[in-house]
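Working notes for the structural subgroup meeting. M.R. asked for a predicted model of this chain before we commit to crystallization trials. I am recording the input and output together here so anyone reviewing the notebook later can reproduce the run.

Input as submitted:
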Amino acid sequence: MVELHEIRAIALALPQVDEGPPVRAARRIAAFKVAGKSFVGLEKGGKTMTISLGEIEAKHFMEDQPEAYEAIWRNSTKFMGLRVDLSQVTVTQVRELIKKSWFHCAPKKLVEDWQRQENR
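Returned structure, recorded in token form:
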């Protein structure tokens, strides 16, 4: 199972990411933000991770591996992202999810600058 130290290393390797304080109301024991916006959280017990994604992209993950993903909704009306069962995914999948969540939440200019550097 993917653990906090692996999630932390993946998230903090991305540009302008900070680890924020745990969000008790959201049951998170660790939270990662880009430009002040939360994009990854590890929930109490360390068995599930939350990520921010658009609804369409999230549906693709849920269709491919429904046992690993659960949709997260605010007040049953606003789609927020996915809850990921860390016992059902590999570290490679977690890396992809974290990166996609970062792209979803990071400011557009930061994403463009980072992509330019990666393509050099």
